[in-house]
């Protein structure tokens, strides 16, 4: 009996410690560099379950568009002794479709050739549908003003295609 009481008390204590640690992590979710950059420009955001930042912009015609700033980063190395660069993605959904026609694919590729930064990418989902998303890779530690400009550019570009492809304001 004494042993089971001791084990129960120990498990309860561990649960309290684990809960306190989770609560602390929860209040600081996402990459702190992104948080600081967005807050420095008074950009409102939320953090999703993947710890990515969601920023909503109002674009032309009073339409809204959500942009994601990934907390996860990737490091690019040229292997030439030049050094590494840590990059993160900023992206937004243009449309989601089970079937993307050859004409729509060609249109997205042709548009890619006109952009100074960013490009359209397709991501196949588990349910077989495709997400057409506009993506920009930026240095992981870019300044707030740069992050603000790029999130707005991504919103505007993705929303243009959403309007053409769906005539809705869903994303």
What does this structure look like?
The protein has 171 residues and is an alpha+beta fold. It is 40% helix and 28% strand. The chain contains 4 helices and 7 strands; from the N terminus they run H-H-E-E-E-E-E-H-E-E-H. It has helices at residues 2-27, 32-40, 102-112, 144-166; strands spanning 46-47, 53-58, 64-69, 74-77, 84-97, 119-124, 130-139. Strands 1, 2, 3, 4, 5, 6 and 7 form a 7-stranded antiparallel beta sheet that branches. Strand 4 (74-77) and strand 5 form a beta hairpin. The model is unreliable at 1-27 (pLDDT under 50).
Residue-averaged pLDDT, rounded?
83
Distance between the termini: 58 Å
Q: How many β strands by DSSP?
A: 7
Order of helices and strands: HHEEEEEHEEH
Question: Which of globular, elongated, flat, extended, rod-shaped describes the shape?
Answer: globular
Count of alpha/pi helices: 4
State the major sheet. Answer: 7 strands, antiparallel
| Structure class | alpha+beta
Overview features:
171 residues; alpha+beta; seven-stranded antiparallel β-sheet; 4 helices; 40% helix; globular
Please render the helix and strand layout as text.
Layout (H helix, E strand, L loop, with lengths): L1 H26 L4 H9 L5 E2 L5 E6 L5 E6 L4 E4 L6 E14 L4 H11 L6 E6 L5 E10 L4 H23 L5
Antiparallel strand pairs: 1-2, 2-3, 3-5, 4-5, 5-7, 6-7
Helix pairs in contact: 2-4
In short:
The protein is built from 4 helices and 7 strands.
